[in-house]
Amino acid sequence: MNTRRRSPQRGMTLIEVLIALVLLSFGLLAIAPLFASSVKTGSSSNQLTNENTLAREKLEELIGYPATDPRLAVPAGDNAAGPSGLTTTGTGSIVGHTAACDNDLPTWYTPSSEATSKATTSPGPGWYKYPFSRSYTIEQFGSDLTTRIASPGTYFVKRITVTVRATMGPFAGLRQTKQSVWVRYRDAS
């Protein structure tokens, strides 16, 4: 008689499956905060990229103007021009304000039509606050590149510094980018 012996097959018990699921859920819960922080980091990185792009765009625009352009003018008796509300004190500090240096970005925008507005209040439904503000300063320096020259004195170079701040997003108001360039204009005094 040929009898075959069956090897005992053993499967997983319900208890073993439940223990495996509990261990798996603990592992997933442990790495869940990493996903939230990676989303925040990605958003912050995107915000900084946009700030740098806006700053570089303005620098390139300003560099293209002749030295006599009013947007690059320093008020008479001042050593620099900056946005309204700029307050600095101390030796060698920036003195001077001009409206040309104020925020030139819109206050509101609507994504559906890509329209923008500088209104102080929302123009209506579907309009959102613009997420950035941008301003710049113009400083005049002598040939040593450390001495600020008051206008209308003879200067050697101008330093243009563009500042872009986030007005909303993950780090609104905390993060900003500043980019500067030294420019010697051909028609400078």
Describe the structure.
- The protein is an alpha+beta fold and 189 residues long.
- It contains one helix and seven strands; from the N terminus they run αβββββββ.
- The protein has one helix at residues 14-63; strands spanning 80-81, 108-110, 115-117, 128-129, 132-141, 157-166, 176-183.
- The strands form two sheets. Strands 1-5-6-7 form a four-stranded antiparallel sheet.
- Strand 2 and strand 3 (115-117) form a beta hairpin.
- The chain is elongated, with a radius of gyration of 30 Å.
- It starts with 13 loop residues before the first helix and ends in a 6-residue tail after the last strand.
Q: Give the number of DSSP strands.
A: 7
pLDDT below 50 for ≥5 consecutive residues: which ranges?
Answer: none
Number of domains: 1
End-to-end Cα distance, whole Å, is 117 Å
Instruction: Provide the succession of SSEs.
Output: HEEEEEEE
Helix segment tally: 1
What class do helices, strands and sheet pairing give?
Answer: alpha+beta
Helix content: 25-40%
**What is the CA-based Rg, rounded?**
30 Å
- Return the average pLDDT rounded to an integer: 84
Q: How would you sum up the major sheet?
A: 4 strands, antiparallel
3D shape: elongated
Q: Which band does the percent of strand residues land in?
A: 15-25%
Q: Provide the spatial order of strands within the biggest beta sheet.
A: 1-5-6-7
